What does this fold into?
Amino acid sequence: MDLKSLDAANIQLRISSEMIKEMIANEEKKSIQELSVIFGTETITFTGKLNWKLVKIPFEIVLRLTSAKERTIYFTVEKFAPINALPIKNTLLQRPPLLKYTDPHLELNLDGIAALKNIPYGHIKDVRIQDQSFLAQIGF
It folds into this structure.
């Protein structure tokens, strides 16, 4: 394959809710329980329970997909319930290098997903929510 055809090459990668849950579970161990990931037409909703200071706090986070650059997907946090407190937001959403949170924006580094980590080259050219998953196009 020459450089021109390599440059035009793209790989389609489907990122399912199970892949996202596995990525978060590997990062979190036991502080997040009963995690659910639901894809809407333009949003992704996370629900579960956070073990925080000996209390189990149920949460719901709604993210709107805004863009993708290099190997990172960007979201706007549209809803954070029931407790919209910065310490709890940071506990759930500030997880470098996987997640970076700056109110109201969240960055998801896809190198945390094994299927993408195994593709060491290329950047996200397009990402969209489709069929209960992210469909990412990785370009070289």
Residues 17-28 form the longest helix (12 residues). The chain has one domain: 9-139. Residues 9-139 form one domain. Residues 1-7 have pLDDT under 50 and may be disordered.
